């Protein structure tokens, strides 16, 4: 009877050891899978068509498709999210997402807080006015006028060079629509591609004034601590340009390759 009890105990210990070993193996396998895959979470304001915006409750646009293509090159699952523009850098630093892919202009001030990839496109700061506005024919005519811009954008700082009367918005489209409301705004400064897209898609009765005031280079913002991710995203971006995927996405939204 005693021998039988010892035998049962030994068999139980062996079985427990085998189960523990299997559990450990499964855990290691799962961890290894996480390292190879996982989510690539990237953020934008979601209020910047055609670059990032909501369509039928789904986040879409040029930035979203570029971010998705980068994730696939990295062997990761793309997960686009939105964050208010005025707090988006702070949220990146708080590790709420891996990168900002939201048409963010590379500036010296921002470079103090985050790292940027190589520029993935370039565009200009453009002045827009209502179709019936004949008083603003150049940037010199902006002096003392009421100018609308997106809050915490490079356009906001630029507008302050011409006037103290700057109105801020969460969305460029809302600002451009206000140009058609008498007495609300005299002009809007925004990205040239964004303004031209809004005219086409929303049938806005507005027009651009002259050539762009300046050109911005847009980069993908990544935390200063994550140097490996910066290197990997740059490689993925270059691959997309070389294999034609970037051009394909760009043609879809703009009818041309805006990286050139």
Mean pLDDT: 89
According to CATH, the fold-level topology of the largest domain is D-Maltodextrin-Binding Protein, domain 2
Task: Give the radius of gyration.
Answer: 26 Å
Shape: globular
The main sheet comes to: 10 strands, mixed
CATH class of the largest domain: Alpha Beta
Please report the distance between the alpha carbons of the first and last residues.
Answer: 86 Å
Q: Any idea what the CATH architecture of the largest domain is?
A: 3-Layer(aba) Sandwich
Strand residue content: 25-35%
Domain Ionotropic glutamate receptor C-terminal: 39-256
Subcellular location: Cell envelope
InterPro entries: Iontro_rcpt_C (IPR001320), SBP_3_CS (IPR018313), Solute-binding_3/MltF_N (IPR001638)
Main location: other
Description:
The protein starts with a helix and ends in a 6-residue tail after the last helix. Strands 1, 5, 6, 7, 8, 9, 10, 11, 12 and 13 form a ten-stranded mixed β-sheet that branches. The protein is globular. The protein contains nine helices and 13 strands. 35% of the residues are buried. With 260 residues, the chain is α/β, with parallel strands linked by helices. A hairpin with a 3-residue loop joins strand 2 (47-48) and strand 3 (52-55). The protein folds into two domains: 38-121 and 218-254, 3-Layer(aba) Sandwich (D-Maltodextrin-Binding Protein, domain 2), CATH 3.40.190.10; 123-215, Periplasmic binding protein-like II (D-Maltodextrin-Binding Protein, domain 2), CATH 3.40.190.10. Helix 2 (62-73) crosses helix 8 and helix 2 runs antiparallel to helix 9.
């Amino acid at each position: 009877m005693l021998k039988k009890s010892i035998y049962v105990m030994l068999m139980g210990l062996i079985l427990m050891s085998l189960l523990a070993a299997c559990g450990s193996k499964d855990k290691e396998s799962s961890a290894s899978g996480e390292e190879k895959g996982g989510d690539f979470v990237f953020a934008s304001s979601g209020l910047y068509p055609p670059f990032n915006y909501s369509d039928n409750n789904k986040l879409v646009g040029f930035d979203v498709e570029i971010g998705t293509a980068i994730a696939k090159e990295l062997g990761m699952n793309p997960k686009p999210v939105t964050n208010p523009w005025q707090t988006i850098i702070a949220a990146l630093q708080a590790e709420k997402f891996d990168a900002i892919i939201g048409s963010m202009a590379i500036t010296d001030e921002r470079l103090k807080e985050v790292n940027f990839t190589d520029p993935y496109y370039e565009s200009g700061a453009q002045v827009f006015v209502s179709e019936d506005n004949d008083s603003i024919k150049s940037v010199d005519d902006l002096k003392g006028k009421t100018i609308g811009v997106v809050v915490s954008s490079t356009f906001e700082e630029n507008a302050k060079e011409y006037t103290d009367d700057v109105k801020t918005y969460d969305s460029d489209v809302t600002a451009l629509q206000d140009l058609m409301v008498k007495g609300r705004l005299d002009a809007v400064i925004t990205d040239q591609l964004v303004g031209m897209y809004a005219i086409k898609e929303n049938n806005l009765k507005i027009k651009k004034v002259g050539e762009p005031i300046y050109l911005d280079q847009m980069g993908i913002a990544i935390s200063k601590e994550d140097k490996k991710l910066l290197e990997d995203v740059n490689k993925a971006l270059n691959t997309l340009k070389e294999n034609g995927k970037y051009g394909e996405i760009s043609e879809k939204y703009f009818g041309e390759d805006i990286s050139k």
